[in-house]
Specification:
mainly alpha; 31 helices
Amino acid sequence: MRKEVWFGLSILFAIVLGLFILMPSPEHMTSGHLGLLMLALVVVAIMLGFPTAFTLMGMGVIFAWFAFYSRDPNLATQQTLDLMVQRAYSVMANDVLISIPLFIFMGYLVERANLIEKLFKSLHIAMARVPGSLAVATIVTCAVFATATGIVGAVVTLMGLLALPAMLKAGYSTQLSAGAITAGGCLGILIPPSVLLIVYGATAGVSVVKLYAGAFFPGIMLAGLYIGYVIILAKLKPSVAPPLSAEERHVDLPGFAEKISTTISNNVLPGLIGALKGRRNADVSTRTLLQQLGIALLPALAFTLAMGLSYRMATAPDAAKTEMIEMGIGAQDLSSEMHADDSFGEPEGALAEPASEAAPAALAETHDTAAPTAMPSTSVEPAAPTAPAEAKSAPKGFWIAFGIGLAAMVVFYAYFTFARLEIFKMLLGSLFPLAFMILAVLGSIVFGLATPTEAAAMGAFGGIVLAACYRRFNFSMLKESAYLATKTSAMVCWLFVGSSIFSASFALLGGQEIINDWVLSLDMTPLQFMILAQVIIFLLGWPLEWTEIIVIFMPIFIPLLPHFGIDPLFFGLLVAMNLQTAFLSPPVAMSAFYLKGVAPAHVTLNQIFLGMMPFMAIQIFALILLYMFPAIGLWLPNVLYN
C-alpha cells in the first residue's frame, strides 16, 4: 500500500482512538459530549471520502433530532424539519453569497481565454536577467492568473503543463520547480478577489469589503517572500536555478526596429523621433512610427494621469461646513418652548374657538403694538455671502513622490531599447489586461464604488470582453464556463446549508458551550489563544480542505474572539494566510496531486512534497510577520473605512 494511504489511515486511527479515550463513559455522557462526538464523526466521515456538504447535513439532522427528542418526543420531527427549512432559507437570503457564482464564472472565462501561455512567455522574457527568472516568472504568472480565476487546480494544472517542462529543460531543480508552481497557484485563495474571503465573511459575519482591503497587502507580501526566496536561492546555488543563456534571452525585432536601431539609435525615443525627420523614414511608414511612438509613450501618459489625479485630490478644497442660520431671540424662545412641551409644537389654545367678537379686535390691537418689537425676532437674517473655498497647496509628500516618479521615468526611457519595447508590447497584450480587470474589480469594491456582487458581475462581463478580444469567445466556451460555474457554486451553497444545520445542531447539543468553558478554564492570554487557534487550523489543513475548515470550525472559534479582544477581521486575515497550507500540506495536498497528474513520469510525489516544504515555512514566517505587525493587514481598512 502507498505511503500516503498509510499516513492518512494512521491519522484516521488516531482520531478514533483519541475519541474513545477522551469521551466519558455512556452513563456520564451529556448532550454536549454528543456534540463533540458529532464533530469527530464528521471529520472521520470526510476523511473516508463522504461528500462534505451532505455529511454535515446528515449528521446535523440526526443529532438535532436526538436533541429535540430528548426534550419533547412529540415535536422532535417537526422541530427538526423546521430547523432545516430555517437554516436553508437563511443561506438563501444572504446577499453576499450572490457574488460567489459570478466570481467563479469570471474565473472560468479567464481560464478558457488561454491567456496564461502569453502571460508566462512575456514575463519569462521580461525577467530574463533576474536570478531564477523562470521560477520568478512562474510565481508571478501563478499569482496574477490565480487572482483572476481563483481556481487553484486549474492554475496548477496549466502551469504544470507550461512551466514545469520549461524549467526542467533549463536545468532547474525538480523540487524548486514543483514548489514554485504549487505555492504560486495557492496565492489566489488569499489575494482578493478571493472566494475564500467571501465564505469566511459570510460565516463569521465580517464585511467582505474590509476583508478584501485587509488581504491585499498580506497577499502581496507573501508573493514577495516567495520571489525573494527564489532569487536568494538562485544566487547562492546557481546549479538549482541556472541563469538563462544569451540565446534564450534574445528578443527578435521587427524589420523597422532593426533598421532604426542600426541606422539611428537603439534607444526607442531618439530612434523613433529621429526616424520621423527627413529622408530617414523612407523605408518605414509614418503611420508605423507614430503607432510605435504612441505605445512607447504609454508609461509616460500613465504617470502623467496618475500624478494629475493625485494632485487634484491632494489640492481639493475642504468641503464647506453647513451651519444653521440663527433666526433671532424670539425664534429661540419659541423653539425652547416647543421642546419643553411634550406636544407637536401647536401653540396652546390654537384650536380653541374665540370667546367673543372683541377678541379679534384685541388680537389685532395687540399685534399692532407688538409689531415693532416682534418683527426683528422672527425675521430671517440674510446669510453672508460665502467666499469660494480656496484650493490647498500640494503637500510635501506629493512633490517627493512626483520627483521620485519623474526620476524613475527618466531612467526608464534612458534604458528603453527596441528589444524592451517588444517585451513591453508582449506585456501589454497579456499582463496588463488581466491586471486592469483585477484592479478594476478590486478597486470598485475597496473604494466603495460597487458592492462585491456588483463588482463580481462587472468582472464576469470583463471576462467575456477579454475572451472576445483574444478571439476565444464562442457559445461552447460560454456554455462550458456557465456549467462549471453552476456546478462549483452549487457545491459551495450546499456546503453553507450543511454548515448552517451542523452549527445549529452543535450549539443545540451544547458542544459550543463545552468548548467555550474548556478554553476559558485554561486562562490563556490572547497571544496563547491565537497560537493555539492557528496551530489547530494548521493541523486541520492536513486532512481537510479550506472549505471544510471554514464552514465547520470557524463557527467554533468566532464566539471566543470577543473574550480575548481579537478583531474578527484580523483573525480572518490570519486564517486566510494559514489556510494556504491546506493545499500544500500532505497527505491531502491537493496542489501536489494536481501537479503530479500532468508532470513527467520521472517527477515523483515525494519530490513535489519536498519542494513545497520551504514554501510552507515561508507561509509560517509570513503568518508570524502579520501577527507581529498587524498594520500590514489593518492599515488599508482603517484608512479607507475609519
